[in-house]
Amino acid sequence: MSLFDVDFIEIDIYYRYSKVGGSKKIVIIDPDKAKMVLEGKEEEVKEEPKAKIDDKVKEVKEVKTKLVKEDIKVLKTKWTSLTWKAENDISNSSGRVINQKTGERQFDYILYRDSVVKKCLKEWDIKVGDQIAPITPEAIDQLPGVIVMALYREFEKITVYSEEDLGN
After folding, report:
1. Using omega within 30 degrees of 0 as the cis cutoff, is the peptide bond preceding 49 cis?
2. Which among 123, 115, 126, 69 has a CA at the least distance from the CA of 93?
3. pLDDT in tens, the chain (168 residues)
4. What's the pTM?
5. Across the strands, what pairs with 20?
């Protein structure tokens, strides 16, 4: 394998819909717990932090939510790592924000994160009708924030090296 070969990073996000009031909320599921449920090794998963106030007793009770296979959804994605050039370009453009009060150049982490997702996300299994939806900046912007944040966190865990990883 050469350093110039494209090696995709596979990131799967496990989630389910939870009804909150009259609307649906997306809940990210820990991948290990989701896999255990999907393999039939675990039936009940404690979700944190959740609490229920019992109106009669006026105390906080732990809420356990039964997580069943049918509730678990999986978003499968493939990513590429940033090249040196792409990392420099994104870092440079993210550092062009000028603080209006001090006039100093500041790093815009939100712009950096957005640029990384839009540059490195290469494949997903999101369908519109029978077709895989194309990955475009506009399509990514339309995804629920909780999904994009979960994807970015997983990508960062895989691609950002600690001092220990680097042998320092």
Report:
1. yes
2. 115
3. 666 777 899 999 999 998 877 888 999 999 998 998 988 876 555 554 444 555 555 444 445 567 788 889 999 999 999 999 999 999 998 887 788 888 888 888 999 999 999 999 999 999 999 999 999 999 999 999 999 999 999 999 998 876 676 666
4. 0.77
5. 23
